[in-house]
Write a structure and sequence with these properties.
By secondary structure, this protein is mainly beta. The chain has three helices and 22 strands. The chain has a four-stranded mixed β-sheet with strand order 6-13-12-9, with no helix packed on it. Strands 15-22-21-18 form a four-stranded mixed β-sheet, with no helix packed on it. Strands 7-11-10 form a three-stranded antiparallel β-sheet, with no helix packed on it.
Length: about 250
């Protein structure tokens, strides 16, 4: 009796192992693939193997990062772009062949990354290599608004203009100045001098007189009166013009 139990138990073990192997082994032609995961930031131009710096990093697939035109971080990938484990092997041995076959997305670029504008003036920004619609946005539209790339300076302060296209975003820092001329009207006797100033502006001021026979002005706002009459002294900076009407009187008799 004891011998039969051992033989029976051994037969059960053989059957269990055979069927267990049939269940555990996957088909010979089955391939399990997982696509490479990388990390990107909203405004970055590179993809990373981990969160290697400051900023908000989001995980995404390698193929998606490459479709956005992003390049590998040299610190994370010193040997260049990694092979995408999830890419289909086309038989040539290059697992990333299908990804590299896609046309590269060009990097967008703004014509200016920083602007200093005078209140009341405007300037056009251009986005290079953009395909399709461009989304423009201002962080403070009360300071500087933007429409189709045209930035309008509205109030003293700072704002950031952003342009988004091709899945990429570029920004331009804008500073708005509220400059003023020291006087808008001036009376001066012939032969005398006076001085005008424009405050609140870092730009170089260009001074001029509409009638240099009556009065002239130098590059620092110094006025010299010559004869009785009227003239307009103008101060111009970055498309903004300030005016001061100057009346020159005859010198008083001694």
């Amino acid at each position: 009796m004891k011998t039969r139990k051992k033989k029976f138990s051994g037969a059960l073990l053989v059957v269990f192992l055979l069927f267990g192997n049939m269940v555990a082994l996957p088909p010979a032609n089955m391939q399990v693939q997982a696509e490479t995961t990388v990390y990107i930031t909203p405004t970055g131009s590179k993809y990373h193997s981990h969160k290697c710096g400051n900023g908000t990093y989001s995980p995404t697939s390698l193929s998606h990062a490459q479709s956005l035109g992003l390049e590998p971080c040299k610190k994370c990938f010193p040997g260049g772009a990694p092979a995408d484990s999830g890419a289909e092997n086309n038989g040539s041995g290059n697992a990333n062949a299908s990804a590299s076959a896609k046309p590269a997305v060009k990097k967008i670029a703004l014509s200016n990354t920083a602007l200093v504008l005078v209140k009341g003036t405007s300037q056009k920004l251009k986005l290079k290599n953009a395909s399709g619609a461009v989304k423009w946005k201002s962080s403070k539209s009360a300071v500087a608004s933007v429409s189709n790339g045209t930035v309008k300076a509205k109030a003293k302060g700072k704002a950031v203009i952003s342009a988004t296209a091709n899945g990429q975003t570029k920004t331009c820092r804008v500073k708005v100045e509220d400059a003023k001329i020291s006087k808008t009207a001036l009376h001066i006797a012939a032969g005398k001098t006076a001085k005008l100033k424009v405050s609140g502006c870092i730009h170089d001021i260009r001074w001029s007189s509409t009638d240099t026979d009556v009065a002239r002005v130098d590059g620092n706002g110094n006025i010299k009166a010559y004869k009785a009459g009227r003239t307009c002294i103008k101060a111009e900076a970055h498309g903004k013009v300030w005016k001061c009407v100057v009346k020159v009187n005859r010198p008083k008799a001694a």
